[in-house]
Design goal:
Strand order of the largest sheet: 4-3-5-6-7-10-11-12
Helix content: 25-40%
Organism: Grantiella picta
CATH architecture of one domain: 3-Layer(aba) Sandwich
Number of strands: 12
Shape: globular
Membrane topology: Multi-pass membrane protein
Keywords: Disulfide bond, Glycoprotein, Membrane, Receptor, Transmembrane, Transmembrane helix
Number of helices: 10
CATH superfamily of one domain: Response regulator
Subcellular location: Membrane
Pfam family, one: ANF_receptor
CATH topology of one domain: Rossmann fold
Length: 331
Amino acid sequence: QIPQISYASTAPELSDDRRYDFFSRVVPPDSFQAQAMVDIVKALGWNYVSTLASEGNYGEKGVESFMQISREAGGLCIAQSLKIPQAKNIDFDKIIRQLLETPNARAIVIFANDEDIKQILAAAKRADQVGHFLWVGSDTWGSKVSPLLQQEDVAEGAITILPKRATIEGFDTYFTSRTLENNRRNVWFAEYWEENFNCKLTITGSKKEDTDRKCTGQERIGKDSPYEQEGKVQFVIDAVYAMAHALHHMNRELCADSAGLCSEMERAGGKRLLKYIRSVHFNGSAGTPVMFNKNGDAPGRYDIFQFHSSNTSTPGYRLVGQWTDDLQLNV
């Protein structure tokens, strides 16, 4: 009965309050993006689509959610539901041939990893099907450029989805000013320093075998090395604050007369703490509300993009809508 708050786990089965009753998360479950994708398909007036999933938890559960939600919504038929196996030499041309067996189902809803997206687009191109398929991609496709390289024409018009996330400026200021001197509390920092600047610290037990360059200690993150904020920083901060708010409210109610931790709170236990976690409501690091539903899930907030490469001077992904409980799409 130990409450947990996750900043990254999006598997739909974690919403099951019978099995994971002490689990909460500040990221939305993938079933919410499946709902968003059903809403997109319906908004575009498509009623006959195929699905494609990479074998494994993410792909299969995503498609499963999509199919279940589309059944409940009605008015949407699934032509085929294909799986890309996790094998070495997969026949992607065969998968394209299968999808072409239902030529009227041009829209393909795809929950797949980068490499599978890349290979399926390449196979569509080899089959001379540029312009045939209309792709609706989940957040593993998102706004990535790498799976589309040299085959932008096959991905033209693809609609993709990404959880809304913000860059936290204060974190960049903080992190890029960390040095070996001012960050001694982080036990992994020296190892990170060597890896990041590709140099060896003079301390014994250096893990860096592949270089003889010595670190000066004067290197600076972002100046002497490329730096980009990890995409989940916002959620890590929100998870920590959610726990802090819960403990704060619990402390105020149980220890009203005393400062700090009182015996009432010491013996409160996980069940009571969970109650406080589930009732937090505050503005998070990106200015959006942090809260949990009865299953411990965060609200779903997604940006919707469309990929354009032809007839435009600036190829790339355009923001065409968003989904927060319901769809706003600029058709």
